[in-house]
Design a protein that fits this description.
Length: 479
């Protein structure tokens, strides 16, 4: 008899908030500065300094809470989480433990198989630690403390995802949400959005969750998916051989596509959490809440509904256009620039622009083509100034050079010929040169029509407008 196992996943997501200054100090949070130039006495926890809570970070955490319909605690507490690590010079991290600012709430996720609600346990405010850099010097580790004190929200999910695909959908939904709320840039390469994945297996039919492992610090959707799938397989093999899964923290190695133990929970630190005596409870009044609620930006699901009402687009198109905030903004900016059909615009954005972005591994928010240039390109295609095929190559040139479409069309001599007099002459020429075929056509061989269009196109070196050529040909070939 073979036992069947099912997997369970719970995620802890760390989101860096995009405040200008740190959560407890006035130091800048700007990414990419010279190492150790942006950590001040407060971030380092030097004696005699006191933390002052950044109200902007609190507001952002509340916005997140409201967006997921969570409870906002009106007296949440900051606690010290004590542990020693070289990138944590204070010896403790300020976090929230017993009473987090956000509790409960949920989001909806969607995979090819399923739509479902994932409940969120809590989201709390905390400070980031510094960064240990292991690949800068041989046999030595460098420490950059610029990141110390950067505000984070840690979002903890219930263990309710059933596989890697659901986990990725959960992450993408949260990622999109924080970008819509404009509380984080969500930049995964820079570590603004990272996640720990908890994975366990249990026998099918059993209600009790199995022993879990926690894979730390995953910073791409692809790695999350691969790490979870590896871990499910690894645990499955152990259980089938009647071995136990050890509860431990593991690291994912993308090069080898495997997870390895980092430290086990048995030897885990006792963090000796206690309320930070330097910080008062975070008091949030009804008035503050109301003000934040009234100023909430349009959320992803709201934008979806509005797009469905406003534009005649398929659910698929709307799903893609609204999956990313900047993409949805780009789409609407095009329509504002020019009077172009939304469906035609959506097609070009989704099949051509996003394909280019994918090819160059560029995120939608980093696309540099402007809505105006893109609108002008679509306008030229719609007006038969250039063919769609030419449009695609103009778009590629726009991507590479940053030039506007009209100058590319001009300098490449691409402009489509749509002048009817000129096209009439071309057509007459072709019909004269192929008078035998014309005879055959008139005697019923109607499939020759395409041949005539092709011949005119060739004669014009591909510049004739196929639509107008067809129209002229139909007239001239009438029996
Ligand atoms: P810790 O603070 O030690 O990481 P938590 O109880 O806060 O532990 O859980 C952290 C995350 O682990 C949560 O997202 C939760 O959903 C997930 N989790 C807890 N138990 C399991 C389990 N058996 N299988 C999968 N995920 C789990
Ligand atoms: Mg954890």
């Amino acid at each position: 008899m073979s036992t069947e196992f099912v997997s369970t996943i719970g995620l802890e997501v760390h989101v860096q908030l995009n405040t200008k200054s740190k959560i407890f100090s006035a130091a800048s949070t700007e990414y990419g500065a010279e190492p150790n130039t942006q950590a001040c006495a407060v971030d380092l926890g030097l004696p005699g300094v006191l933390p002052v809570l950044n109200a902007e970070a609190v507001k952002m955490a509340i916005m997140f809470g409201l967006a997921i319909n969570a409870k906002i605690e009106n007296n949440s507490i900051f606690a010290r989480k004590n542990y020693f690590y070289p990138d944590l010079p204070k010896g403790y991290q300020i976090s929230q433990y017993e009473i987090p600012i956000v509790s409960g709430g949920s989001i909806e996720i969607e995979t090819e198989e399923i739509k479902k609600i994932i409940n969120i346990t809590r989201a709390h405010l905390e400070e980031d630690a510094g960064k240990s850099i292991h690949d800068l010097f041989v046999n030595e580790t460098a420490i950059d403390l610029n990141r110390a004190g950067t505000p984070l929200i840690e979002i903890v999910s219930e263990p309710e995802m059933a596989n890697a695909k659901e986990a990725v959908s959960y992450l993408k939904t949260i990622h999109s949400l924080v970008r819509y709320l404009d509380i984080s840039d969500g930049n995964m390469q820079e570590g603004s959005f990272r996640c720990d994945a908890n994975v366990s297996l249990r026998e099918k039919g059993s209600i009790q969750l199995g022993t879990r492992t926690e894979i730390k610090n995953l910073n791409s959707f692809k790695f999350v998916e691969q790490a979870i799938n590896f871990e499910i397989k690894r645990q499955g093999k152990l259980l089938l051989n009647n071995q136990n899964v050890v509860q431990e923290t593991r690291l994912y190695d993308p090069q080898k596509n495997e997870t390895r133990p980092m430290r086990s929970k048995e030897e885990a630190n006792d963090y000796r959490y206690f309320p930070d005596p330097d910080l008062l409870p975070v008091e949030i009044t009804e008035e503050t809440l109301t003000k934040i609620r009234e100023n909430m930006p349009e959320l992803p699901h709201e934008r979806k509904t509005r797009f469905a009402d406003q534009y005649n687009l398929s659910e698929y198109d709307i799903g893609i256009l609204t999956s990313d905030k900047s993409l949805s903004i780009f789409f609407e900016a095009i329509l504002k620039e020019r009077d172009i059909d939304p469906k035609f615009t959506a097609n070009w954005v989704i099949t051509e622009l996003l394909a280019l972005a994918n090819k160059h591994s560029i995120n939608p928010q980093d696309i540099t083509i402007t809505a105006k240039d893109f609108a002008d390109l679509l306008f030229s295609i719609k007006n038969n100034e250039i063919s769609s095929k030419q449009g695609k190559s103009v778009l590629e040139k726009m991507w590479e050079s940053g030039d506007n479409p009209s100058s590319i069309i001009k300098s490449a001599g691409l402009s489509q010929i749509s002048d009817e007099d000129e096209l009439n002459k071309l057509v007459d020429n072709v019909l004269k040169n192929h008078y035998k075929s014309v005879e055959e056509y008139k005697n019923g061989k109607e499939k020759l029509f395409g041949f005539f269009v092709g011949a005119v196109m060739q004669e014009s070196e591909g510049k004739a407008s196929p639509q107008i050529v067809s129209k002229i040909l139909k007239n001239k070939l009438k029996k």
